[in-house]
Amino acid sequence: MSASSELKEDDSFDDKVNEARQVKPLGLEREASRILLRRPFSEDGAAVHRLIGNCPPLDTNSLYCNLLQASHFSATSVAAELDGELVGFISGYLIPERPDTLFIWQVAVAEQGRGLGLAGRMLREILARPACTQVRHLETTITPDNDASWALFRSLARRLDAKCADSVLFDRERHFNGQHDSEMLLRIGPFTAR
């Protein structure tokens, strides 16, 4: 059924809206299928740095930090490439004291990668890797006003059939001296990595 089909009397509006969201133009599906997901490597560091700089409201880190993310954490991070260009990147790591917990540090998707479900694909790619076979929880921090990130991670929780809990991890006044919004810790789990 197309997104523009008429409502029948017995169809609910919400059902039609949800169905319409799932319909992607054929061109977008082809574009999404051309995106290569892979482990990042150190040579991606500069491209990661540029990508994150072009994805507000993400905090930019030093280029050196991005080099470390792309090399030291490559087993739990992902790079998305379209025609040889970096269009997406997620950095993550296993929390040393809790190796069953994957912490997602940053999610960045370039303009040309948006609207394709790329961020969700990248998260699932990381969770399917050998490094994450013991992962039962995922954590990330999100500012209260970052609606796109909240939607992404809540969608992942639904897909994993897992619960979500959130709490303040770093407070605007106590930790950031009023210079940055509070960072909320979102915890998803338990789940079975797939």
Architecture overview:
This protein is α+β, with helices and mostly antiparallel strands and 194 residues long. It has one domain: 3-Layer(aba) Sandwich (Aminopeptidase). Helices cover 31% and strands 26% of the residues. It has a seven-stranded mixed sheet with strand order 1-2-3-4-5-7-6. A hairpin with a 2-residue loop joins strand 3 and strand 4. Helix 3 (45-53) crosses helix 4 and helix 5 crosses helix 6 (147-160). The two termini are 30 Å apart.
Characterize this entry briefly:
By secondary structure, this protein is an alpha+beta fold.
What is the topology?
Blueprint: H1 13-22, H2 26-33, E1 36-38, H3 45-53, H4 63-72, E2 78-82, E3 85-95, E4 98-109, H5 118-127, E5 137-142, H6 147-160, E6 164-170, E7 183-188
Parallel strand pairs: 4-5
Antiparallel strand pairs: 1-2, 2-3, 3-4, 5-7, 6-7
Helix pairs in contact: 3-4, 5-6
What are the main properties of this structure?
single chain, 194 residues, alpha+beta, Aminopeptidase, seven-stranded mixed sheet, 26% strand, globular, disordered N terminus, Ectoine_EctA, transferase, L-2,4-diaminobutyric acid acetyltransferase
